[in-house]
User: Fold ATP phosphoribosyltransferase from Pelomonas aquatica.
Amino acid sequence: MTGLTLALSKGRIFEETLPLLRAAGIEVLEDPETSRKLILPTNHDGVRIVMVRASDVPTYVQYGGADLGVAGRDVLHEQALAQGGSHGLYQPLDLKIARCRVSVATRADFDYAAAVKQGSRIRVATKYTEIARQHFADKGVHVDLIKLYGSMELAPLTGLAEAIVDLVSTGGTLRANKLVEVEQIMDISSRLVVNQAALKLKRDLLRPLIDAFASAIQP
Ligand code: ATP
Ligand code: MG
Assistant:
């Protein structure tokens, strides 16, 4: 392959990457929300977009299924903790898009501070088991981690867990489910990730793109 393959995920990351692509002169020619195509063409013959799950972006870039991609710090940090490092991934830019935070939330009637102080075991449901494990280990809080793949908010409401570790942006979803944010773990934004081999072999194609992205980042 002589061209560039960029891995993106649907939703916020795709939408917020479009202006950066535009700054590099790249227009995506189909809408992933309506198209059934997994590979989207652009106005550049040499640049194509592959649509993958948010949590699969680092994997595609790491193993060269894509030359570069955009991934949340949540996904990158979780994968790095699980793998003991971010092998083969170069992270040149914080794109400052898709901003949110990873937080601990509980039902409003659960006294989290008291449970922590008493040294109680707390059941925590999350898809971020590595981030959660490290956070609670650092605090010396005993937790039973319950791995979920979606709708974390449901766990405290059904008695599956006392707490969740999940992404929060406006807090609207938590409020709608009568949950409260009791602790912030880390601030999240999306990063540009580049395959380390591609960075050398496709430097002439990648460098201008990385530079154009860098100049278009909104503080
Ligand atoms: P998957 O399908 O892989 O499990 P997902 O559907 O949970 O992923 P999305 O909710 O589409 O993933 O989120 C993708 C990325 O967008 C997250 O990893 C995060 O970095 C960012 N993100 C998610 N929710 C928000 C939000 N509310 N505000 C800002 N950014 C967010
Ligand atoms: Mg999704």
